[in-house]
Amino acid sequence: xxxxxxxxxxxxxxxxxxxxxxxxxxxxxxxxxxxxxxxxxxxxxxxxxxxxxxxxxxxxxxxxxxxxxxxxxxxxxxxxxxxxxxxxxxxxxxxxxxxxxxxxxxxxxxxxxxxxxxxxxxxxxxxxxxxxxxxxxxxxxxxxxxxxxxxxxxxxxxxxxxxxxxxxxxxxxxxxxxxxxxxxxxxxxxxxxxxxxxxxxxxxxxxxxxxxxxxxxxxxxxxxxxxxxxxxxxxxxxxxxxxxxxxxxxxxxxxxxxxxxxxxxxxxxxxxxxxxxxxxxxxxxxxxxxxxxxxxxxxxxxxxxxxxxxxxxxxxxxxxxxxxxxxxxxxxxxxxxxxxxxxxxxxxxxxxxxxxxxxxxxxxxxxxxxxxxxxxxxxxxxxxxxxxxxxxxxxxxxxxxxxxxxxxxxxxxxxxxxxxxxxxxxxxxxxxxxxxxxxxxxxxxxxxxxxxxxxxxxxxxxxxxxxxxxxxxxxxxxxxxxxxxxxxxxxxxxxxxxxxxxxxxxxxxxxxxxxxxxxxxxxxxxxxxxxxxxxxxxxxxxxxxxxxxxxxxxxxxxxxxxxxxxxxxxxxxxxxxxxxxxxxxxxxxxxxxxxxxxxxxxxxxxxxxxxxxxxxxxxxxxxxxxxxxxxxxxxxxxxxxxxxxxxxxxxxxxxxxxxxxxxxxxxxxxxxxxxxxxxxxxxxxxxxxxxxxxxxxxxxxxxxxxxxxxxxxxxxxxxxxxxxxxx
Length: 727
Prior knowledge:
Blueprint: E1 7-9, E2 18-19, H1 20-33, H2 38-50, H3 58-66, H4 74-84, H5 89-96, H6 105-115, H7 119-131, H8 151-177, H9 179-184, H10 192-205, H11 211-224, E3 233-237, H12 244-259, E4 263-268, H13 271-285, E5 290-293, H14 297-304, H15 315-326, E6 331-335, H16 336-343, H17 348-351, E7 360-365, H18 375-389, E8 392-397, E9 415-417, H19 422-428, E10 432-436, E11 442-443, H20 445-453, E12 459-462, H21 466-479, E13 484-488, H22 494-509, E14 514-518, E15 532-536, H23 540-547, E16 560-567, H24 575-590, H25 600-611, H26 620-625, H27 629-635, E17 644-648, H28 653-668, H29 673-680, E18 683-686, H30 688-693, E19 698-701, E20 705-708
Helix pairs in contact: 1-2, 1-8, 2-8, 4-5, 4-6, 5-8, 8-18, 10-12, 11-12, 20-21, 28-29
């Protein structure tokens, strides 16, 4: 095929083929532009040049021109990388996996052994590369651009390389096949000055008088003074209600400006907090500056092409969807699951965004919610990203976990606090007193219901599982000792919970006497302000977070009351949760005052990891050192068992109408992303056992839309049976 033009892709809608040399060069330059350091830039470019070198094969060219069976090209490209750059094992992984995903090390070795027997074909591909308009000098560039004797740093660099290569490859391919879609992408930069000006304008509008407002201003100023320190790890520990979110963003903008970092990523544990945080930030910075990216089925549908790409609304809506693919936005608000399962993934779709975590400031809000069984591999990965990718991390919470390096825990050497004397803030804002009901000996729900029935004002009761919440709610509702009684749990669809939450807040503002029974979903991101909160024994962080729903605004003439109790037959979500709860009970009975000391949780967390929890239960770091990317991805699952969205058809007229629209759209083709996101507001997440046991009450449409035709209670939602551990 001498003298022939080699192709990367077939004709687009205008009849133009994609030349291979052009695609390799474009991908190489894009990949280099994604590198967080000059040291990595050459390696990233080299990967772009080599990733599709396997397409120089005669069989692959015949496939593009004549439709013959497709010939694999990634594996032989990885072997060419081995031959041309023996020191760069990361190249081999990235090129071999740029379609199928990063492989295990044994798969890489087997690939090299297979293509090592085809030396003539390999040499032919290299010759064809050289006679193209790329030039032979490109094959020797960047061979020594990055080296590390630290296996974990090299593994992290491989992940960044893979992400940059995948994104660059897909962007250039999209440019060829869908120029209009490509043109919609808007690479918005982090405009530090404009965003800081908008934030400072909002600060000027805040009231300044009163103790709480004075402390908020003082904390923000103190945090803002720590922005010129090196890229690294920081903490912001403040009591609930002192403005951690805006103080953290203020610090992040100043820090990013000083170090010329490219974006801010805010990682939150729950979707309801994302909604609230994104709404706040959009009101300050504008809609275009904020990208919300939730985990869930929407991403799976995007990957599988099960929604209509061209039917997502305006160009702005489409641009936001495209930005979710690679996080090309100034400020990203996302979930813990989305963030970490992407970092530890081996799949091209999920990993595509990871290179944009580089050169960023990442803010972890409510950091105490990170699963303890993954604590060590998470911390180690963040440490690697700091060194390889120039990324700073800020841990925000009222209950700071013990992430420092110690003993056998490979933690962080230096976490710099943005607030030096956190005790001043905690002591000045003490809003509650704690009481131990029955000295934390077991009590029945019947006795508990009688006890709360004697409350003269509104109260909130938080328990640990859905079935307990439903049982206690029904008992309290029958007692008639209140004006209104509410139930909250994820057995209710999001729309149902939002309506009830708004009703509760209105009733509290109107000073009605109400009773609310909830699972722990209200412990973060829900601005309830009750004079009294009852909390079933749980982990110490849950207890402290629950206390944040009591006298939250400090408006009571006296301190609020938080009553801890230990119910009979105390169900808990899992074994780790139970161990942490029982240890917290022992600590509290021994020293009740620890609930008021700001540093108690750090000591508790350290002891929990030492006594009850294996901080790397699934040996993820060991697999990372072996470059077993597939095994790491399979082991890192923040949600143990996948859940399925169950659409509640009879919830309301709105849900009925939306379902009819979905059905019509499915008959005509594909549903849109926005339609599916709207449907999630009327859906409940359930486990596979629930689907099996209630199959006769579930309608399956087009293999992925599941509709519930069974009973849905107007107060408590779906029956909590078999969906227990999703609170």
